[in-house]
């Protein structure tokens, strides 16, 4: 209620707009209201396994439809029966394993270090590379930024650290800065949607600890000029982190397939750390990413260790204490099961799907592609509100990602989009959605008004709308 009152008091939105918005969001995010029993206190007697499993099966089977038919951007990067059954079997072997206790589960030490070594090897790292499996790209990025903050405080006495990120860098860098009290300098992109290196150079101060580049970035799928950025970092004696969350398991194979891929990894002198997401194009189950450092000393600043804690000697390489060992084992199993041959095959199919979609979009006069992407394709339009096109795509079952400034949307192609008929239906639905946007205008429900508002509402008011929606989302009584 508090946020709702503020929204109305501050005249951010009219009550009718808010109820339209919430009706749309209700359908999207709370579709099971009234359809299943609701549990808000612990039942006095346990509910039968059959009933519980039936509830879960019904909800999951609804939700499986949208990603299985290839209508979701990113999210499920593989989802083949072969890999899903491999996860299930690994889970049945390791349901309880916890890497916090390496004495009880030393196998996890072996599996994690082999995943780290395989990733380092893929990215031209040598025997000095150290790193860990984290629970996701965000945790890998948070840890790298914390590492640099502590390293430069210790080595150079920097107490007001700054990082330089491209405007296209993932929100996880902004989150890291907020969590760890690091100032962020955001640098604009050039006309190819890659960070402007001259502007990065001019942004460096005596407090800069690291430059960030993406290979590729989330919004546009374009690869920042990593080599040039790393040179700037070296000239100033600072670090260079590459966010290869999306590219770590695509770019090495794309290069082997003959695509012209610029240098982006430890091959580039000056790149000091890289994150790559095993749970994206590495095709491991969710809860798995890898952070790598060029040298063991840097890695030591990531690790938390306390030798004299009342509870005994305690150390953790990552943010969490206890965590699932299953994801480590499953990541190891998936990487070895696919091998280079498996990754090459899927990469080839994804990139060929990308080529088809890019070529077809170029034939649609109302649309334009932002940058020069390979498989994460950002689309905008000079003649039609792209958010309206996105809403009509949503009505056709597509879950695309809205982009702000410039307005647009993207699709991150995965193995799901390589399945028969999916790419053709994407283009067909895009053409139909454009027709709807021209003929019918903005639909009554959808995301267009919210995305549209981002162009003119001040940040504090946008934050207020988000806070209201998030409060509603996590309110179990609503
Ligand atoms: C380039 C990039 N970096 C970081 C992240 C964050 O990863 P996660 O959602 O696994 O935390 C993403 C997620 O899409 C990403 O695309």
From TrEMBL:
Q: Which residues carry this modification: N6-(pyridoxal phosphate)lysine?
A: 280
Matching InterPro entries: GrpII_AminoAcid_Decarb, PyrdxlP-dep_de-COase, PyrdxlP-dep_Trfase, PyrdxlP-dep_Trfase_major, PyrdxlP-dep_Trfase_small
Superkingdom of the source species: Archaea
Q: Pfam families per the record? A: Pyridoxal_deC
Asked whether the UniProt record includes Cell division among its keywords, one would answer no
Needed co-factor(s): pyridoxal 5'-phosphate
Q: How does it sit in the membrane?
A: Single-pass membrane protein
Its annotated compartments are: Endoplasmic reticulum membrane
Q: Name one GO molecular function term.
A: sphinganine-1-phosphate aldolase activity
Kindly state one GO CC term assigned in the UniProt record: membrane
Keywords (alphabetical) are: Endoplasmic reticulum, Lipid metabolism, Lyase, Membrane, Pyridoxal phosphate, Sphingolipid metabolism, Transmembrane, Transmembrane helix
Gene Ontology process terms (BP):
carboxylic acid metabolic process; sphingolipid catabolic process
Pathway note: Lipid metabolism; sphingolipid metabolism; Sphingolipid metabolism
Q: Which PANTHER family match?
A: PTHR42735, SPHINGOSINE-1-PHOSPHATE LYASE 1
The entry's family comment says: Belongs to the group II decarboxylase family. Sphingosine-1-phosphate lyase subfamily.
Protein name, as recorded: Sphingosine-1-phosphate lyase
Which species does this protein come from?
Answer: Vulcanisaeta moutnovskia (strain 768-28)
